């Protein structure tokens, strides 16, 4: 089976089925925003949501992650996590799936990161395709992430009365197989899917004023542009943009001691290149002074450096950095200003 | 190379878990710098290249990257020399013979010693730069017949801050190695040069095409020293530097050590000047 369909009224039955299979995380509403949470009551799940405050990265790359246990005397290290549990991320947008693909590349590159890979190994992704824009901050069309591009086990598309589900892995197929309310899609469903995708083309337009290749060229040429000073002047160095970014993974290391002060746990915790001391060494030299340089670094880590290294843009177009910026620094505006320097 | 495989295997299980390292020697070299000799569990060798670094853990105080200052030809242990500048190093200075630290590594790319075979070597060490360079100097001493003429220029602020003074005298006894020291500010007992290390470079006698210059020192020193070396016509790819950066993981992940798109912990800390020249503005050590 490549495509399956489920009626909307059967969705909750399926969710209850999924709950039994593994720990289930899904989007729900909270104080006017949306967040991913463990699903207790399937009625809480909302499928019409704009990107959550934090991407699901908090589950596969936790904000505070145990690396190992230690004892000071006698010197000893041991496992901090006994076993990683199976989990399902439900109703993930295509932009966030693109974020997971970026993280995969980073943590698979040698030396591999066993913590990330163990969590990724236990992950099942059920995506949902957006048929309308979340808000004005997204740049998913320019980034090519408004449509599914792999990286998921199942992908749901709203066809009105039912969802059509693209089955993209064996893991995914096991979650839809043998259920009376999930049937193989017929020709009419496939035709409907084509219509929906056609209609979508009229809604989603490139948000940048030029193609990604041109964007890359603009970044390549305008490292010294005045735009970075402008962005730096507005930035308040809060680090919101990097915290909410699905492809930001910089970290710091933290030791927490138990009461005996003889044993403890080493953690890694999210860190942000926007912090003042991020690149400062013990002797006092700061290798990335100024908010302008630090903001530029963030942008180059999305549009230039990973393209050179992995042939992949690390902006997913989710728009979270803009949405969460206290100084209203807009990613789309910044990129378009840079393109304007190129005369685009 | 079974030991090397043991190290790699440990990295595979968890690259974050340190090995056990026992301090077998510890002594103050100056008011601020302490020397440690460390033996890994099972006395296995670190198998590093001169110029590589390790990440040293003290549980409860996290971990920091430190240059290895012994040569891989010194077997059964490795050496560190650490200046007391912060919370971690202050704690490290309190440790003594018999105490245990955690060790991860070796990490990064060291000095290109194989490429340097048969060349004359000009070493320029400013301040603490002598620490990673001691690894290279000891390696060259051990394999002296593989290298041409060796000259070493050492600079520091005051005669008190000169590291490895006794060892330097020993090196000097070998007539074929020229060592020249300078201090920024002398004292009554100092009879050597006074002035910045850059002032020593114009006077060195070298055949530039046959010379590798290896420079390590504080960030501000590089651009002046490199300018002088380029004036001497040493080819850019034969000017070797080692860069200091903040580091957490050593695995090219945590992001702290990045210069533009490059992770210094993986692609460096050793670079040649033709690599450095391509950086657009985040590399303070670049000559302008």
CATH architecture of the largest domain in chain B: 3-Layer(aba) Sandwich
Count, helices of chain B: 8
Question: How many domain modules of chain B?
Answer: 2
Largest beta-sheet characterization of chain A: 8 strands, mixed
Task: List the SSEs and their pairings.
The complex is a heterodimer of chains A (344) and B (288).
Chain A: E1 3-7, H1 11-21, E2 23-30, E3 33-38, H2 57-60, E4 64-71, E5 76-78, E6 87-92, H3 94-108, H4 114-121, E7 123-128, H5 140-143, E8 154-158, E9 162-167, H6 170-176, E10 182-184, H7 187-203, H8 212-221, H9 226-234, H10 240-244, E11 251-257, E12 263-270, H11 291-303, H12 305-310, H13 320-324, H14 331-341
Parallel strand pairs in A: 2-6, 6-7, 7-8
Antiparallel strand pairs in A: 1-9, 1-10, 2-3, 4-5, 4-12, 8-9, 11-12
Helix pairs in contact in A: 8-14, 9-11
Chain B: H1 2-13, E1 19-28, E2 33-40, E3 53-57, E4 63-67, E5 78-83, H2 87-93, E6 100-107, H3 113-116, E7 120-126, H4 130-142, E8 150-156, H5 165-173, E9 177-183, E10 193-194, E11 211-216, H6 219-231, E12 239-242, E13 258-259, E14 262-263, H7 264-267, E15 270-272, H8 273-276
Parallel strand pairs in B: 7-8, 7-11, 8-9, 9-10, 11-12
Antiparallel strand pairs in B: 1-2, 1-6, 2-5, 3-4, 3-6, 12-15, 13-14
In a few lines, what is going on in this structure?
Chain A is an alpha+beta fold. Chain A is built from 14 helices and twelve strands.
């Amino acid at each position: 089976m490549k495509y399956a369909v489920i009626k909307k009224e059967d969705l909750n039955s399926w969710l209850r089925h999924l709950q039994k299979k593994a720990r289930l995380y899904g989007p729900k509403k909270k104080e006017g925003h949306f967040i991913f949470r463990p699903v207790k009551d399937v009625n809480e799940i909302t499928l019409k949501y704009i990107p959550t405050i934090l991407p699901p990265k908090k589950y596969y790359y936790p904000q505070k992650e145990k690396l190992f246990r230690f004892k000071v005397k006698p010197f000893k290290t041991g496992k901090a996590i006994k076993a990683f549990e199976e989990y399902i991320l439900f109703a993930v947008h295509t932009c966030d799936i693109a974020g997971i693909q970026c993280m995969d590349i980073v943590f698979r590159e040698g030396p591999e990161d066993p913590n990330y890979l163990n969590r990724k190994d236990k992950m099942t992704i059920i995506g949902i395709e957006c048929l309308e824009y979340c808000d004005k901050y997204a740049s998913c069309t320019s980034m090519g992430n408004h449509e599914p591009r792999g990286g998921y086990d199942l992908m749901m598309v709203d066809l009105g009365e039912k969802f059509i589900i693209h089955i993209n892995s064996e893991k995914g197929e096991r979650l839809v197989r043998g259920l009376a309310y999930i049937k193989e899609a017929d020709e009419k469903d496939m035709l409907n899917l084509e219509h929906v995708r056609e209609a979508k083309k009229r809604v989603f337009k490139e948000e940048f004023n030029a193609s990604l290749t041109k964007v890359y060229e603009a970044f390549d040429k305008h490292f010294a542009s005045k735009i970075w000073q402008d962005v730096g002047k507005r930035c308040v160095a809060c680090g919101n943009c990097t915290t909410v970014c699905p492809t930001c993974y910089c970290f710091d290391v933290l030791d927490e001691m138990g009461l005996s002060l003889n044993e403890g746990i080493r953690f890694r915790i999210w860190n942000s290149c926007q912090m003042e001391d991020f690149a400062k060494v013990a002797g006092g030299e700061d290798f990335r002074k100024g908010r302008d340089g630090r903001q530029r670094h963030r942008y180059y880590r999305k549009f230039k450096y990973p393209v050179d290294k992995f042939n992949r843009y690390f902006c997913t177009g989710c728009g979270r950095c803009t949405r969460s910026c206290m100084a209203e620094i807009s990613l789309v505006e910044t990129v378009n200003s840079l393109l304007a320097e190129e005369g685009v | 190379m079974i030991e090397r495989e043991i190290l790699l295997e440990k990295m595979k299980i968890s690259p974050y878990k340190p090995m056990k390292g026992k301090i077998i020697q510890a002594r103050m070299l100056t008011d601020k710098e302490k020397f440690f000799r460390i033996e890994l569990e099972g006395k296995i060798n670190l198998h590093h290249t001169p110029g590589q670094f390790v990440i040293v853990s003290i549980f409860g105080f996290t971990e920091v990257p430190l240059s290895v200052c012994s040569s891989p030809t010194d077997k059964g242990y490795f050496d560190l020399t650490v200046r007391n500048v912060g919370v971690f190093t202050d704690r490290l200075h309190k440790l003594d013979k018999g105490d245990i630290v955690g060790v991860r590594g070796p990490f990064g790319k060291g000095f290109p010693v194989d490429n340097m075979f048969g060349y004359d070597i000009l070493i320029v060490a400013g301040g603490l730069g002598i620490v990673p360079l001691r690894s290279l100097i000891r390696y060259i001493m051990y394999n002296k017949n593989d290298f041409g003429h060796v000259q070493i220029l050492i600079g520091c602020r005051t005669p008190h801050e000169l590291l490895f003074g006794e060892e330097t005298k020993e090196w000097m006894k070998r007539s074929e190695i020229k060592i020249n020291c300078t201090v920024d500010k002398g004292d009554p007992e100092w009879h050597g040069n006074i002035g910045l290390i850059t002032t020593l470079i114009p006077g060195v006698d070298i055949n530039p095409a046959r010379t590798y210059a290896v420079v390590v020192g504080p960030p501000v020193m590089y651009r002046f020293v490199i300018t002088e070396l380029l004036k001497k016509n040493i080819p850019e790819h034969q000017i070797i530097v080692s860069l200091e950066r903040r580091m957490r993981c050593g695995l090219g992940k945590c992001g702290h050590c990045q210069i533009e798109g490059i992770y210094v912990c993986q692609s460096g800390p050793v670079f040649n000047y033709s690599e450095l020249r391509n950086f657009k503005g985040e590399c303070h050590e670049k000559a302008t």
